[in-house]
Design brief:
Shape: globular
Strand order of the largest sheet: 3-2-1-4-5
Number of strands: 7
Radius of gyration: 15 Å
Structural class: alpha/beta
Distance between the termini: 21 Å
Strand content: 15-25%
Amino acid sequence: HGNYIPQIAQQIYERYTKKNDIVLDLFFGSGTSGIEAINMGRRCIGVELKDELAESVSEKFTPKQLVTDVNIICADSASEIAKEKIKARLDIMGAKKAQLLMLHPPYDDIIKFSDKKEDLSNCATTEEFYDLFEKVAQNGYDLLEKGRFACLIIGDKYANSQHIPLGFECM
């Protein structure tokens, strides 16, 4: 779906986290954030909208890793339910907040990710995409330790012969 190569996660983690820090990824997808967190001695909480994707991605981790190092939550990242589930996982991991927030949303409507109405790739307009992304980002910022970093990975798009700066607008 999106091109979130491991090298991006590695570089971000190296610069902005320390061993045992918790990475919160609100668009977990195929699990790159979790895999690289384990590879680099970090922990990760990933939120994934699609049940079947969350289930298949969990198979990339050992049962022990799924208890101690990577927690996958199937929920809508913009929802209060997701926020409460993340808080519960943070508590289990012995933390109040995450030390890094990863945001790699779909690029508006370029590639349809699912048929769910909560999916950002199904927004009727780019303005609706921005509004829904803002809710996700707010949930993430509320769960991010003060003075720590959020990383946005997104490309821009072209529609009707016009450049639409998704990255700039999402920031």
